[in-house]
Amino acid sequence: MPRTALVIGAGIGGLAAAIGLRRVGWSVRVLERAPVIAEVGAGLTLWPNAVRALAALGLDVTDHSVSTISRGNILTPRGRWVRRNHPEDVGVLAIHRAELHDVLRKALPESALHTDAEVTAVSTDGTVTCAGEELHADLVVAADGVNSITRRTLWSGDPVFQYRTVWRGVTSVGPVQESLTMGRGLQFGVLPLREDRAYWFLTANEPRANTLYGDDRAEVLRRVGDWHEPIPQLVAATPPDQVLHNDMLDIDPVPTFVKDRVVLLGDAAHAMTPDLGQGACQALEDAVVLAAHADDLSTYDRERRARVHPMMAAARAGVARNSNTSALRHCALLVAARLIPPTAWRKATAQWANWQPPKLP
Ligand SMILES: Cc1cc2nc3c(=O)[nH]c(=O)nc-3n(C[C@H](O)[C@H](O)[C@H](O)COP(=O)(O)OP(=O)(O)OC[C@H]3O[C@@H](n4cnc5c(N)ncnc54)[C@H](O)[C@@H]3O)c2cc1C
Asked: Would 236 be classed as within a structural domain?
């Protein structure tokens, strides 16, 4: 009899975990509370570590993505160049989240995916209460996101609001070049997606969690409407109801990802702010390492914490850097970005991107 796993959550992490476990012979059921398994959201950068994780799961998203550089071209709001892409920069794939999610979902049989399946309780012996029914498995993978009910009940730790907020959109105004425009406490990023679409985001300081703006697109334009081209054009061309707005949340590091038969994976285990663009990449890595060590969860626990805890700290350092509004420090940041040698720049990103997946049995 194959061993059994219940995966809570059909986000990028949960689907990848299900694919990995099935590859090593487990029987897997994915429980998703939403009525359909789909991903909204805008774009995503997949660093080389994530591309290798996908390959280890037997997946290739080259045809769904654009090969580009993240954070290589840096400008001021008036369009002055601070730094240009360099051949030594680490490349990334830019992909629409829905397309990545679709690739993952299609790698699983429909029979493994259960919708309208909200998990309300989990215990460490592998029992899960889902839609009023008790289910049992050899392994429970909690991939239920930053607000994970599993983490909050079996571990502890509510999400932490980082006093930052982000707007995102996908639109098309013709070909765009990757760029990051740095204002004081404000960053506007642009990444090309397939079919001449562009993914844009604006991050900003936010004193209160859950602040709502009646018209998100108008709010973004209020902040960056006079920034260099094509920023105002990209925002104006995005249908108002397709501008997404979220607060930036992360969690404090948890001391273990494993309790008996339950493991945390993805944002449930290590939600971090998007400052490194590594959250989903790490969920993919988790999935591969879990599949490789499903019989030895202590190795999963040890390897994954050693990998992601420094990254969580680096993401928080990124929050501190990016939220700065002092003119002096902002100027120092731009000067540093201009002067830092390409090899040092590469080293800063390569430390996260250089991961190699374990071989799956
Ligand atoms: C603005 C922004 C930009 C980002 N950019 C990048 C990037 O460029 N690169 C990158 O790698 N990462 C990025 N990230 C991070 C990335 O989005 C997340 O790390 C990743 O999506 C986490 O996936 P997950 O599957 O762990 O969690 P989620 O995507 O949150 O999925 C959790 C799933 O669990 C389900 N669920 C929750 N509770 C229950 C329950 N009780 N019962 C059943 N189902 C449940 C939910 O409905 C959901 O489907 C970004 C994040 C943000 C906010």
From this structure: no
Q: In whole angstroms, what is the distance from residue 217 CA to residue 224 CA?
A: 11
Cβ(185)–Cβ(137) below 8 Å: no
Domain CATH number, residue 307 = 3.50.50.60
Closest-lying ligand 1 atom to the alpha carbon of residue 271: 19
pLDDT value at position 157? 86
Query: What separation in Å is there between the alpha carbon of 261 and the centre of ligand 1?
Result: 22
Strand ranges of the sheet holding 139-142, from the earlier edge strand across to the other edge: 113-114, 27-31, 4-8, 139-142, 262-264, 258-259
Return the residue whose CA atom lies nearest to atom 30 of ligand 1: 145
Nearest one of 131, 102, 99 to 29, comparing CA atoms:
131
Q: How many domains does the chain have?
A: 1
Contacts of 331 (CB under 8 A, 6+ apart): none
Residue 243 lies in a domain: no
Sheet of 119-123: strands edge to edge?
119-123, 127-130, 133-136
The pairing of beta strand 179-182 with beta strand 74-75: parallel
pTM above 0.85, yes or no: yes
Running along the chain, 361 residues long, what does each successive block of 10 average in pLDDT?
95 98 98 90 95 98 94 95 92 96 97 97 98 96 98 94 98 93 97 96 97 97 98 97 97 98 98 96 98 97 98 95 94 94 90 94 76
